[in-house]
Structure formats: structure tokens, C-alpha cells
Specification:
The protein has two domains: 2-45 and 100-203, Ribosomal Protein L4, Chain: A, CATH 3.40.1370; 47-54 and 62-68 and 75-96, no CATH class. The protein has six helices and six strands. The chain has helices at 30-43, 103-119, 136-145, 161-167, 183-187, 196-203; strands spanning 2-7, 13-19, 123-126, 152-156, 173-177, 191-195. Strands 2-1-3-6-4-5 form a six-stranded mixed sheet, sandwiched between helices. A hairpin with a 5-residue loop joins strand 1 (2-7) and strand 2 (13-19). Helix 1 (30-43) crosses helix 2 (103-119). It is elongated, with a radius of gyration of 27 Å.
């Protein structure tokens, strides 16, 4: 069992939460986690880099001058890669870098990422997080009270517009719901800040990941 301290907005400990490691897979599956991270990063690649090969360059296919008798080195058409303005020898073509993983494998990778954060004591649980008005200053004070001065992923149970607007101007802080959470989001941040409702939702049967 993993014991987590639960804090309020003022950074005071108010309760303790016990989590069973078996819920998140008992051990961190590093090969599966690596596969998921590669997939998410590959799917972010645009893949639109493109250069023109000799067949794409405009120009005549006629030989520039005859083969012999001119005193020049033999030469083909104007689109040859060895001439200025010609096509590239090994041209880059637009391609898709997308990779796929089964939904169950993605959930297992997400659980391994969360478990690694739990084992390294990089998970902070806050009792509740709600705001009447969107104010960045209030969110900064909460982060300061919880001593979160590095990159952080704030995980909430449900979408909250005020929390999102209060967090989006803080460098290194991102907000995600428990349903949106994936392995790359968890691993790319130093700390994982979860509301109590969000961590309990993740520790239950688990939401379906996108």
C-alpha cells in the first residue's frame, strides 16, 4: 500500500489516502511505457517536410548538348541533381509517422507512468480544488503553498473552466481531466498534482483513455 498525504489549499495536511499498488499494475512496465511514449511523440509529428526530386522539377527532358565533340563533360537534362536548380537526389517526401496501440495497452502504460510517479513520491493530492472566479493569482498561491515550483500536471475529476483559466498562464503547469490523462502527459512533467476525486477515479476501475 502507498500512503499519500492529502492537503488543503493552504498546504496543510488534512487527511491520508491509501492506494493499492496492484491497481496500477504493481510494477512499472518500462518496455510498454517506452512504446507508448514513442507512439505519442510520433503522432505529434507533422510529417509535411518535402523536397523536389528530378521528376518534380520543371524543365525540359532534352539533353543539354550532344554527347561528344563540344569539349565539355557529358551532361544530361537540366533537371539532373548535379546541376543548380535540379532536383534532389534523395528527396524528402511527405509521410505519416503515426503509430497505433490497443486501448488496453495505452491504459496499462498510463498506469505504469502513474505508478512510477507514486514510487518516486512525485504525486501531491489536494482535498478539493474549486474557484468561484478565474484568477491566476489564486492558483499561484495554491502552488506556492504546496511547494510546487517545477513543472506540474494538474489532474481534476471533471472539466472546470475556472481552474483551467486560472492555470493556463502559469509556465510549466498544465491541466487535464482523469479521462484525458495519458502516459506522455504524466512523464513529461516533474510533479503530478491530483484532486482527491481524480486520484480515486484513477484508482478505481479506471477511465477509458482517448
Amino acid at each position: 500500500m502507498i500512503e499519500l498525504d492529502v492537503y488543503n489549499k493552504q498546504g496543510q495536511k488534512v487527511d491520508t489516502l491509501s492506494l493499492d499498488e496492484a491497481v496500477f499494475g504493481t510494477t512499472v512496465r518500462l518496455p510498454l511505457l517506452k512504446q507508448a511514449l514513442v507512439m505519442y511523440q510520433a503522432n505529434r509529428r507533422q510529417g509535411s517536410a518535402r523536397t523536389k526530386c528530378r521528376s518534380m522539377v520543371k524543365g525540359s527532358s532534352r539533353k543539354i548538348f550532344r554527347q561528344k565533340g563540344t569539349g565539355n563533360a557529358r551532361m544530361g537534362n537540366i533537371r539532373t541533381p548535379i546541376r543548380r536548380g535540379g532536383g534532389r537526389t534523395f528527396a524528402k517526401l511527405a509521410r505519416s509517422f503515426r503509430k497505433r496501440m490497443p486501448a488496453k495497452a495505452r491504459r496499462l502504460a498510463r498506469n505504469s507512468a502513474i505508478l512510477s510517479k507514486l514510487q518516486s513520491q512525485d504525486v501531491v493530492v489536494i482535498d478539493a480544488l474549486s474557484m468561484d472566479l478565474p484568477r491566476t493569482k489564486d492558483m499561484v498561491s495554491i502552488m506556492s503553498a504546496l511547494k510546487l515550483d517545477r513543472s506540474c500536471l494538474l489532474t481534476v475529476a471533471e472539466h472546470d473552466v475556472n481552474v483551467l483559466k486560472s492555470s493556463r498562464n502559469i509556465p510549466g503547469l498544465e491541466v487535464a481531466t482523469a479521462e484525458q490523462l495519458n502516459a506522455l502527459d504524466v512523464c513529461s512533467k516533474h510533479k503530478l498534482l491530483c484532486t482527491r476525486a481524480a486520484i480515486e477515479l484513477l484508482a478505481s476501475s479506471g477511465p477509458q483513455e482517448n
